[in-house]
Amino acid sequence: MRQTWRGYGRFTRLAWRASPALTVLTVLMLVLNAAAPLGAAVAIGAVVSRVPSASAMPWAIAVGAFFLLQWLAIGLYQAAAAALAERVNALLQRDLMAAVMRPVGIGHLEDPASLNLINVGQETFRSGWSRPGRLARTLSGVLNGRLMLIGACVIVAKSQPVWGIALLLAGLWAAYEDKVASRIEANHHHSGTEISRRTEYYYDLGVTPPAAKEIRIFGLGPYLLDRYLASWNRSMDEVLAPTSRRPFVAAIALGAVVLGALGSVAGSAGGSLAAGAAMAVVQALMVSLAGARITSWSSLQTELALATLRRYDDAVASLASTPSSGGAVVGAPQREIRFERVSFGYPGGTGDAVHELDLVVPAGRSLAIVGANGAGKSTLVKLLSRMYEPSSGRISVDDVDLASADVEAWRSQLAAVFQNSTRFALTAQANVSFGRVSTANLDAAAKAAGIDDVIAALPDGWNTPLSAEYDGGVDLSGGEWQKIGLARALYAVSNGASVLILDEPAAHLDARAEARLYERFLELTSGVTTIVISHRFSTVRQASSIVVLDQGRVVEQGTHEELLALDGAYAEMFRLQASRFSEAS
Ligand SMILES: Nc1ncnc2c1ncn2[C@@H]1O[C@H](COP(=O)(O)OP(=O)(O)OP(=O)(O)O)[C@@H](O)[C@H]1O
Hints:
Rossmann fold; about 575 residues; ABC transporter transmembrane region fold; ABC1_TM_sf
């Protein structure tokens, strides 16, 4: 019970934050809407007791006025509550978005428990019933139902005290049982979030572009449809609670009381009970039944919305404990970036992806990292950009520990091209200058990345949306997208970023574009602290120094020539690739 009231309180504060005017209007119309039928019941009683006298006339007009008032109140109430509901939903979604983006790292986005909580944002898009904003509507049902019941009991009790009390008890019992059953149902409803996510995943796979090619080539359609349906049915089994019989028993008890009261009125009407009073009692009994129906309907909806509201609060609270920004401001590295005995394992992973790693990245020079798949190269970059925190060891920039540094200031020093950079369905300009106000260096960045001719050929140049899913939009090839990513990073460098991270910058490039990248590599990275991860030795050999990673540790380090002379893992990998190319040519 206390939990429910806390939920109502939380919702009221939210509604007030969303719009004080709409909150006041909603509450006023709510009360008017509940009071009008009771006023009408009393007025009808007065009409009946005065007919055929002319004094019945004002009461007849009052009956009409009460119905008119209710009609107006319902209309206004529905409009105000709908507007308030949408504002509350938007506010909650915004708060959740802010909370999800607040932690400095991305570990919470790969943790199933956090994802289940965060998923509440998606769920409310899917199911209108669960949206907390609906409380603006459903609370009216709860309040209306209660007011109608109590008002009806007062009217009945005036002439039939025993039946009035019986009606109150039966009505409250029915409302209580509905509430308990609804609470169980609502809690069940939210128990299946993991399976819901899975169901949604199958659906998205089937209807969105990323997997469309593989689905068709490998004939995955029937498999996906089967999995989708099975997963949906399982999720429904989990969310629908076994039905309790108690609300039905309580509803039958209420019906019996109403029937008994009607019988009693019929027995005494015209005798001990005046016709007018009898009419008011009959009308009040009907109002009480309508109240019970409204209570029952709104109970489940209210509990569903309250449960969702609690889940929003849980999600936001769980993220509040993850570290956010603040701390020493780190500028451009002057001497070095240093990794000292750094270890890190992914949450849910099988072991350390990086293990007691020692590495010095000299400032203003380029360092290439090579190693087999899974050696820990990308993980190193994620640790450097503080997407994750090391489980032990320290990463420092000119002796300032990154763990205690202000992450936003540090990230403003970074520019990166990731293996699969995000393809923003935004304009070409936004894709390159995203988040930065200056557009002065746009063309220079595009030229340096070798994408200037593609941009120039776009229907609306820099203003063309890079997505065929939007009007006037154009999609690019994998290699062109990679050049856009490169331009984004180079643009950031020209706007002050001092550390450039290139994770497989040539993976999608054709031979000519790749050759151009090597030719310009030293020029592009001159004076900038550059870390390049690549399996292509033609890129790697351009770097000032090279490290070889194996199972999360540095096993070799030196220049291209030094490492060839060492004749270790690097030399072996290099020879293998060189022989493949010479065989091919
Ligand atoms: N998000 C993740 N969750 C769990 N384990 C991960 C995650 N990302 C990477 N790993 C694991 O961490 C190890 C190192 O991965 P990492 O991506 O750093 O390798 P890499 O050297 O960049 O490989 P590649 O050359 O294939 O890109 C691998 O064993 C990988 O399976």
